[in-house]
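Sequence and structure are no longer studied apart. As an example, we show below a sequence and the tokens encoding its fold:
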Amino acid sequence: MMNKEQELAEAGRFVRRFFELLDTNPAELTSMFDNESSVFIYGRENGTTAGVDGIVGKLTALSSKGCTHKITTMDSMLCEREDRGILVSVNGRLKVNGFDHDIVFSQMFFLKTKGQSFYVHTGIYRLKYLLERVRIQGF
């Protein structure tokens, strides 16, 4: 069983690695999802995407805009159910190449255990900036 410090450390490592790959090589995110994974992305195109290939394909398309995420806060909580997991909330700023204004984002993950590691079982990604003020094609 993980204690609070181990939980935060595991969630922190996962989140840092996730956003590092999302910004630099999203095709490598495949190990962070499972075929039962689903992610809902709020933006100009709302929708749920499921499965490794669908999710990584969607994230790769969005990241092709030249994005850099800066995490400002992260909170996590151990879910002590039979299938165990970690609920993670991330807030930050998204810098899109060619635009002057950052976009505020939030992301929720439910990380589920798989062997000795975790994967994203469910995720919600939301762009919070008023998209009417800054039009970003593809978001």
